[in-house]
Design brief:
Rossmann fold; 4-stranded parallel sheet
Length: about 180
């Protein structure tokens, strides 16, 4: 009953299924966790973009997509207003997403743990048990236009930074979906 209540509360506040647990992760779905520092700019943007692209491709029902931060600064917070505005300008709604912190169980549960930059990649790899390190990668490893670059943190910059983040995550999302399709096929 507690799990159902938590899922309901999370769905009402986040607009997406609650973060997975060992008992409710669907083994038939490919699970993807997008990660940045605070989970209010880059990773929620990447979550929304990937979700929308997967929906357009007709594969959303086969994916579990979530986002989290390496730091717990913004747990429960909405995405940055500037990130929301830039995303909405391209048709992505971040308003129901809420920040959360990467948990230790995420390493076991997610198939892909995709990090926005090398600093946060290093933070996660230090925490990650050895048997799961192969899952932790830079998100832009899937990008054709921006391969293996960092997605820059737009938090301290202007609106152009948020547009740049969208350009990068749109490209990497397309590459990731192509990779998942190849692996499924």
């Amino acid at each position: 009953m507690r799990t159902l209540l938590l899922r309901f509360v999370d769905t009402m506040t986040r607009g997406a299924p609650a973060p997975s647990t060992d008992t409710d992760m669907n083994p038939n779905k490919t699970s993807i966790l997008m990660v940045c520092m605070g989970n209010i700019c880059r990773s929620p943007t990447a979550e929304a973009v990937l979700r929308r692209k997967a929906e357009a491709a007709g594969v959303l029902q086969r994916l579990h997509i979530d986002s989290a931060g390496t730091h717990d600064f913004h747990v429960g917070s909405s995405p940055d207003a500037r990130a929301q505005k830039a995303a909405l300008g391209r048709g992505y709604d971040l308003s129901k997403l809420r920040g959360r912190h990467v948990s230790d169980k995420d390493f076991a549960e997610f198939d892909y743990i995709l990090v926005m930059d090398r600093d946060n990649l290093g933070n996660l790899l230090q925490r990650c048990p050895e048997q799961y390190k192969h899952k932790v990668k830079l998100f832009l490893a899937f990008s054709g236009r921006f391969p293996n670059l960092n997605v820059p943190d737009p938090y301290y910059g202007g609106s152009k930074g948020f547009e740049q983040v969208l350009d990068m995550v749109e490209d990497a999302s397309a590459g990731l979906l192509a990779e998942i399709a190849r692996n499924a096929g």
